[in-house]
């Protein structure tokens, strides 16, 4: 089932999410929720979706990057479910790159993100995950785990003048090819 996505301004987008218990993860309802989050992410061509974005303040996020029309140049990332994620920064070099968000439709802006990180979490069957990610993969994880703290990419931007509507971003940044920060 495709879920309704909360937009910036809805209080849930600014809520810190609570942890999920192993017992909850194993319920049928929770497994359906994960399937619905993946379906919703696919429907809107997102590279990630956090539970706060679908009106649930629980620490769950899904992410996947594969031939995504919203991020055509992004390297692929396999479908991953992160429950109760804990991020450790491994390389605190900041890399600028454009981001968008399903809760902030039709916009792009340049966001500095840490280059490399480790994320420890539970997977959809409560199995422990321990993932090292860098560059765009690390960017997506930082974006989604920020959502679980009630933070959005606008909060991380250093230069609000890079904020652009999507059509203008495609016309003046992607097609022009110049001045585009690397991912
Ligand atoms: Ni987002």
Instruction: Indicate the mean pLDDT.
Output: 94
Identify the CATH architecture.
Answer: Alpha-Beta Complex
Total beta strand runs: 6
Distance between the termini: 32 Å
The figure for the number of domains is 1
Largest sheet descriptor: 6 strands, antiparallel
Instruction: Write the element-wise H/E pattern from the N-terminal end onward.
Output: HHEEEEEHHEH
CATH level 3 topology:
Peptide Deformylase
Low-confidence stretches: none
Bound small molecules, deduplicated: nickel (II) ion
Describe the structure.
The model has no long low-confidence stretch (mean pLDDT 94). A hairpin with a 5-residue loop joins strand 4 and strand 5 (128-134). The chain has a single domain (11-174), classed as Alpha-Beta Complex (Peptide Deformylase). With 183 residues, it is an alpha+beta fold. 25% of the residues lie in helices and 34% in strands. It is built from 5 helices and 6 strands. The chain has helices at residues 22-25, 28-43, 135-147, 153-156, 166-174; strands at 48-50, 60-65, 77-101, 104-122, 128-134, 164-165. Strands 1, 2, 3, 4, 5 and 6 form a 6-stranded antiparallel beta sheet that branches. Bound molecules: nickel (II) ion.
């Amino acid at each position: 089932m495709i879920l309704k996505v909360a937009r910036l301004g809805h209080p849930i987008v600014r809520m810190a999410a609570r942890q999920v218990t192993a017992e909850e993860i194993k319920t049928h309802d929770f497994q359906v929720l994960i399937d619905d989050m993946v379906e919703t992410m696919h429907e809107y061509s997102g590279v990630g979706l956090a539970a706060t974005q679908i009106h649930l303040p629980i620490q769950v996020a899904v992410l996947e990057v594969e031939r995504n029309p919203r991020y055509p140049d992004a390297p692929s990332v396999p479908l991953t479910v992160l429950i109760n994620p804990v991020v450790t920064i491994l390389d605190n070099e900041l890399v600028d790159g454009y981001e968008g968000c399903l809760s902030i439709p039709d916009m792009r802006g340049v966001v500095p993100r840490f280059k490399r990180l480790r994320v420890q979490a539970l997977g959809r069957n409560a199995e422990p995950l321990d993932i090292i990610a860098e560059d765009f993969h690390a960017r997506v994880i930082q974006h989604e785990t920020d959502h679980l703290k009630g933070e959005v990419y606008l909060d991380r931007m250093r230069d609000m003048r890079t904020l652009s509507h999507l059509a203008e971003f495609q016309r003046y940044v992607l097609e022009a090819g110049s001045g585009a920060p690397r991912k």
